[in-house]
C-alpha cells in the first residue's frame, strides 16, 4: 500500500464525538513502547503522531485519516503508573469503551517492547482482548536495539505464555522505526483487511 495522504482529524474521549464510516486500525501498548514513532514510520511522516520522552503522553483517542479511506486510531497506553489513580481509571474506561463499542474497528494492534520479557500487563491485556473476541495483531517494537537472537527469544517467550491458554496465535510483526522493518508487511495487512470492511 502506498501512503498518499495522512492527516490528523481530531482527538476525543468518547465514540459519540468520533469520525465515522471508515475502517479503523487502533494502536495500543504499554507507555513508552514506541507507539507514536511506529505510527509515524508506517505513514512515512516525521511528526504526525506526537512523540514525547515522557511516558503516558497520549491521553485522548486520536484519529488520523489515511488516503481519505481509513483511520489510524492512537489510543492511550496502559500500565502507566506515574499518573493519578483517577486518570488511570478514566483512561481504562475510555479505552475499553472504544475497543468494545466501536463499529468500525477492524484490528487492534498491540505493541510489545522486544527488549524485555513478556510483561503481565501485556499478557493480561492480550488475554482480555481474546476473551472478548477482539481481532488483534501483536507488534514487537525496537528490534534494532537488540540482537536477532534476543528478538527471537522474546517472541518465543511470549508464544510459550500464550500457548498456556491459546492454541492459535494472532498475527505477529517485528518492527523497527530506524530501518522501517515491518512497514510494508503491516500496511499490506491493513490493505487486505480493508477489503473485508462492510460500511
Give, in order, the helices and strands: EEHEEHEHEHEH
**Architecture per CATH nomenclature, i.e. the level-2 architecture:** 3-Layer(aba) Sandwich
Secondary structure: helix percent: 25-40%
What does the oligomeric state look like here?
single chain
Query: For the residues shown, what is the average pLDDT?
Result: 88
Distance between the termini: 21 Å
Query: Class in CATH?
Result: Alpha Beta
Strand content: 15-25%
Radius of gyration: 16 Å
| Tally of alpha and pi helices | 5
Q: How many strands, what sense, and barrel or not for the largest sheet?
A: 7 strands, mixed
* Count of all domains: 1
Based on helices, strands and strand pairing, what is the structural class? Answer: alpha/beta
CATH superfamily: P-loop containing nucleotide triphosphate hydrolases
Low-pLDDT sequence parts: 52-57
* Shape annotation: globular
Strand order across the largest sheet: 1-3-4-2-5-6-7
How many beta strands in the DSSP annotation? 7
